[in-house]
Description:
The complex is a heterodimer of chains A (226) and B (191). Chain A has 226 residues and is of the alpha/beta class. Chain A has 2 domains: 2-119, HUPs (Rossmann fold, 3-Layer(aba) Sandwich); 127-225, putative n-type atp pyrophosphatase, domain 2 (Alpha-Beta Complex). Helix content of chain A is 34%, strand content 30%. Chain A has 6 helices and 9 strands. Chain A has helices spanning 11-23, 50-57, 72-88, 101-114, 127-136, 162-175; strands at 2-6, 25-34, 61-66, 92-94, 117-119, 140-146, 186-192, 198-210, 213-225. In chain A, strands 3-2-1-4-5 form a 5-stranded parallel β-sheet, sandwiched between helices. In chain A, a hairpin with a 2-residue loop joins β8 and β9 (213-225). In chain B, 23% of the residues lie in helices and 33% in strands. Chain B has helices at residues 16-19, 21-29, 44-49, 87-95, 174-189; strands at 2-6, 34-38, 52-55, 82-85, 100-113, 124-136, 142-148, 151-157, 162-165. Chain B has a 7-stranded mixed β-sheet, sandwiched between helices. In chain B, strands 5-6 form a two-stranded antiparallel ribbon. The interface between A and B is medium-sized, with 25 and 23 residues.
Amino acid sequence: MLLGVLFSGGKDSVYACRRAMETDTVSCLITVVSENPDSYMFHTPNVGWAELIAEAVGIPQLTWPTLGEEGSELADLSDAMAAAIDRYGIEGVVTGAIESVYQAARVQRICRDLDLWCYNPLWQIDQLEYLRLLVSEGFEVIITGVFAYPFDGSWIGARIDGPLIEKLEALRDRYAINPSGEGGEIETFVLDGPIFRKRIEILRAEKTYGNYRGRFSIEQARLVEK
Amino acid sequence: MILVVDLCFKPQSLSKYEFVDPITAILRRAGSEYEVVHSTEITPDLIYSSDGIILCGTALKDDIYARRIDLFSWIRDLEKPILGICAGMQVVAAVFGGEIVPQPKIGLEKIMIVKETDLLGPPRQIEGYHLHNFGVTLPQGFDLVAGRPGEVEAFKHAERPLYGIIFHPEVRNRWIVERFDALLLESTTTP
């Protein structure tokens, strides 16, 4: 089946893409670029750099703009998916949704209206097991945004590895955060992984942080041979 | 051993992660033994060596199971506990003469439990995640447990431990799968 993956460059969409590539053919990555940094539907930090990941994994990318307003962003997503049907002949859409009923139900409705299959291959996955899976399979993931207490500035730009997962587990136990950031606590960006033909090297980035909100904004990056 | 039946359109589909793995994760956390089999690969040995059976749901666009009801004729005479989830419930209904009818619903909705059962407990309102294009009519010999006659949310066979729920318990209602698992344990340890 030809599939389009809703793709932000964050770990969930990248790992969903990996699973889809194992069973089906991913014919395009669909990236909706929101002008609203607080969008409920779309991952925003560094989404512009998703293009570099698309190039690294060798799959065409379809980018689609949205103002990111609650009413219109779903119509924009629907238009993007319709364009993916026209341009790439997709028969289904893949998302990286884990727990968010809000996001999942909305994408399911759009798929139904467009007569598309809808796949959520990370749905209800144990978040800590999932993070360990990412690391064990060789994905290099960095934290590009924190948006909740008690994340301090040290998390900005940190790489997800075993010790960091232990810290996330401790925060889950103490503060009930979602360790993979499903509640919007953290955002991520993927630099390398088993589906990458080349890896991403960040040449310049800016860190900003204050009051438990911070961003790691990539300013310059390139693909390098693995 | 609990037999978890994958009703998705083909074995090892991308949908398995979404509709089968969340069920087995609940069983794994409960410490229960289980085995997963695709609906096209069920054998009499697997059925009869199991203590109970869970029939999983499928993707919204996947209605292949409804064209393969003959694969499930063994349900009619099996006395073991069976839990049918969404597509699994539709299969149970069809095997017992109920109809699979268009009834699309997506998202969280209130569910009224109207009859006390060992699986869902006493009458009350809960909230459940729905993802289906089809519902069922109540087959003869089954009690309405949740919902209403034109919109069956859950049913139970009047005399057998045979349950169906149209919503997805793996989302926000994992206790239902855990309770089914506990009922199985009780049934296998009670003389």
